[in-house]
Hints:
- The structure is a single chain.
- It is built from 16 helices and 7 strands.
- It is an alpha/beta fold.
- It has a 7-stranded mixed beta sheet, sandwiched between helices.
- Helix 8 (155-165) packs across helix 9 and helix 9 (171-184) packs across helix 10.
- The longest helix is centred in the last third of the chain and has 17 residues, at 348-364.
Amino acid sequence: xxxxxxxxHVPVLLQETIDxxxxxxxxxxxxxTLGMGGHAFALLERAASMGEAPAQLCGLxxxxxxxxxxxxxxxxxxxxxxxxxxxxxxxxxxxDSLGWDMLDGALIDIGVSSLQIDSPERGFxxxxxxxxxxxxxxxxxDDRPVSELVNRARMEELKNLIATYGEEPQAGxxxxxxVRARQIKPFQTTRELASVVEQAYPAxxxxxxxxxxxxxxxxxxxxxxxxxxxELERFLDAILTxxxxxxxxxxxxxHSLEDRVxxxxxxxxxxxxxCPKSLPVCVCHHQPEVRILTPRPVQAGxxxxxxxxxxxxxxxxxxxxxxxxxxxEQAAAVIPQDATLDxxxxxxxxxxxxxxxxxxxxxxxxxxx
Length: 369
């Protein structure tokens, strides 16, 4: 007996996302973070209303429990839905196994689902006690629970993770408190960690805090243990080559770091000339690869927020792939090698991105062990 996925999880920015993807009858679509199938159901339903030929959907998720619920929810669409237990950055494996060369649209919703947050045994939330886990894929052989991270990482590594991924101003105090506490007793539960983080906050900060003091720390540890920024970067590196001209990509993010990555990648794709600024005329003849559909991120309106407060931090960005002009693939190679480059000091944003990349490589390769 399955729980009703529609009662467990409310997909955020649903109509806005489906409008951005503009699904059509007979199209092939990817939902890289299938979850419980809310966006996928609406996409297939919209496509069915556009004509007789059924659309097909390739659905991926790291969470096997969510996949089973999605199978139940999407059963009315029969064999037109294909399910894969994969990370969304591994989408090419799924497409190749289906024999799909190109897609008409792709979607990723990179937030934590209500199923995960509301299940104490998954260890994502500090509101109920549970094992300190936070793995999106509990069956993954290479995925290790957060308890290993907090019990084994060096203090400086913890401080950097919490400061960067959680944007936590008290990261140093929190990391020091974690190291002191684990010397007495290793962390095993969410309540144990949340209590230590809360006590590490200065009393005046606790009194003024709008959210629980452990909110940003839990977010940072979850992002580190699941390599969330690395997943996003790898997906964005590969997805554009599998979108056909006119195909669309929609990304929903919940964290400023993730939204920043998406924003700048889409801006790069949409850029025309890439010559050094010091050159008086364009010699690269580079053309934009996409058209940005959302000049500003789409966010939930008041009605949706009243129904689903968890949508408050959701941001949707979308692009449409443009047709490539023959010969443009090699355009960047014609920039003269002796061109004078406009070398400037790195901005604060560039320094932050470099720091994020360094942390991602460390956490992704087990550098905190």
